[in-house]
Amino acid sequence: MIWNQIVWWGVPTLALWLAGALTGKRWTRLALALSLAGWFCLGTFTALLWRELGRPPIRTLGETRLLYAFVLAGLGIWTAWRSGYAWLLAASNLLASVFLAILMARPGMQAGPLMPALQSAWFVPHVAAYIIAYAILGVGTLMALRQLLFPRRGSSADTRLLPAIDAVVRLGFSFLVLGMLTGAVWAKEAWGHYWSWDPKETWAFVTACAYLVYLHARVRHARSLAVLWLLPAAFALLLVAWLGVSFIPAAQQSVHVYS
Amino acid sequence: MKNAKPKRSLWTPPFGPAESCAFTVLLMLTGFALQLATGPFSFYLLSFPANLIVLFVLLAAGLPAGFRSQSAVCAWISGPAFAAGLLAGLLVLTIAMGSILQTPDPDKSAALMLRLGLNGVTTSWPCVLLFVCLLLVLPAACARRVRLQGWSALRFCLWHAGVFLSLAGAALGQADRQSYVMHVYEGKTESRVYAPDGTSLELPVAITLHDFDMEEHAPRLVLIDKKEGTPLPASRPEFVQIAPHAPTGRLGAWRIAVDTFLPRAVWAGNGEFKPMEKPGASPAVLVTAVHERTGETRRGWISSGNMGQFQHALELTDSIAMAVTPATPAQFTSDVTVAVKGAAPVRTAIRVNEPLRIGSWMIYQYGYDFQLGRYSDFSSFEIVSDPWLPMVYAGFALLALACLAQICRRRRLAGQHDSLSGDLL
User: Into which CATH architecture does domain A1-108 fall?
Assistant: First the structure.
């Protein structure tokens, strides 16, 4: 069973990502190469797992954590390469490493065969859109935290960073909405209604609402750093929607609690 | 020396975020007062044609507000600050909704929190008032942007019109949505359903059930604690999926070989299971387990059992046994003929994720007799009519286009001064 080999693939990946994070400030190209090597290492494990399962690894919490670490690290590499922000590579590598470390400690791999409602063509686009959205919004949150906690000396706001944060959040929000739409259409096909206010749906609505508050607030406060605090708050709500619903007593009847 | 920003008092035009927050707080307080006075809002008040009239009123009030440039109030309510305030209010309510079990209880003596409607947020007055305001400002925002930018407002309008159509169709169409569960026995025709209040109704839809069938996933092998019956290891139970292409596996220190797997079998009484198709049959598996270190070998039949026969486990040690999980449904199918007034009868198979659309009705596979499983002699269908669905899906389509336009947009991540009042807002 390939899941039992997660440590053999995960530890080298962690080592490469951490090395990439540490070398990023002085040797950006080396950091990119190390991060990319780690990304390919985890990608190989993901591909092997996909082949063994006979379906995309997007169902259990463990599988989505794996995919999240993979997509987040990939996005971090791409964004750092495009923008020249070496710190972003370090931050996304570290965040992806946290998810990978949790995954190795608690694989969450046990899942029964697919229940009938999950056997749908909407399954893959729905979960994939959400994972991509979560990863992009994770990158957006790291950028906001960088601006809030480690601002540039002598200026109130990094004039390059703020528009980039907005671009990233808009992109992530678009994937978030696509995830919601595909989920709604799938729910209509499977359960007869596109929106039933299931706890997971409620928290998905909360997440979308939080990012909408940010996007609307930014229009009037283009230079305000206070509004940026909405991004970590929104990401915390996103984590509740993704990982926390299973632990909320009021959500125990959710049809989305599978694993 | 910098000029000090003149202090402005609340409700002095032009209105901004402070007034938006104050308005949202006042609106929610009004909603809570209404909730305490009258109880939850009944969406059935919005049955046709009331919902159509409300939709017309929302558009008739919102669109002109967006086109009027002189009024400070119109500029305010069609702007982002007002929307941010409303969204923040909705955010607070939905966080409460996600944290509190939603079981509306009309008991007047209940705790204040429950009387405020926080255990039934979607039908609470604060939520309804926020939704109404949101539905009012969305057309106003579109109209304002079109007035200011003409065709350049297309992407903005895709987002906002998409949200308006989806939310308006869902909220106003709720009262016109019909949903019933119909139970049909094999070989019988049924057209009666039971409403949620228990009264019997005759629908213009008749379903004849020819056959109900279920495909099942093969069960999984697991080690269990003989005393507790719990799967092992307790911290992270391991399973071996029984599959034709992988007849061997490993559980703990035991190597396992599946010698025979019978998807449906009954206990023959001579220490053997035999294949049989009848109610009460359950999956059974003949397994050989060899301990890796000691070489001890155990061989025997295992079955999860059901209401018709006992469970069989294979004893490995004094404290550990091997068992199988119950079979789970892979797919269930109803072979039916559906007749709707004014249309020719249709014979088809209805499955989960494969509903039948006939006339204005959608028919979904809903349930069966869980005790009998694949031998269930009846099948349940959910029969749904939602006349506002096209409007909701039109909203979805606009939103999907807006998302794709946003994703495909060329962007530079550094050094780009993206217009903050661009396409999304």
Answer: Up-down Bundle (1.20)
- Asked whether residue B207 carries a pLDDT value surpassing 70, the answer given is yes
Nearest alpha-carbon partner for A144 in A82, A81, A211: A211
Q: Where are the domains of chain A?
A: 1-108, 117-259
What are the domain boundaries of chain B? 17-172, 182-215+331-362+380-385, 219-326
For B262-304, what is each residue's pLDDT tens digit? 888 888 877 788 888 877 788 889 999 999 889 899 999 999 8
B residues 223-242 near A, CB within 8 Å? 236-239, 241
Q: Is B309 on the interface with A (CB under 8 A)?
A: no
Q: What is the mean pLDDT of residues A78-82?
A: 85
Contact (CB, 8 A) for A53 and A107: no
DSSP for A103-136?
A: HHH-------SPPGGG-STTHHHHHHHHHHHHHH
Q: Which residues of A touch B421 (CB under 8 A)?
A: 219
- Choose among B35, B160, B16, B33: nearest CA to B77: B16
Q: Could you tell me the two tokens for B76?
A: 């305010």
CA-based nearest distance A219→chain B, Å:
6
Beta-bridge partner residues of B321: B224, B315
Tell me how many helices (H) and strands (E) chain B has: 8, 17
Angle between helices A123-149 and A161-191 (to 10 degrees): 150
Q: How many CB atoms lie within 10 A of CB B70?
A: 6
Q: What is the pLDDT of residues B74-83, one digit of tens each?
A: 889 999 999 9
ipTM value for the complex: 0.85
The alpha helices in B249-311, defined as continuous H runs, are none
| A52 close contact with B: CB closer than 8 A | no
pLDDT at A14 > cutoff 50: yes
Least Cα distance to B370 among B361, B383, B362, B379 occurs for B379
pLDDT one-digit tens code per residue, A34-56:
999 999 999 999 999 888 888 88
- What pTM, to 2 d.p., does this model score? 0.85
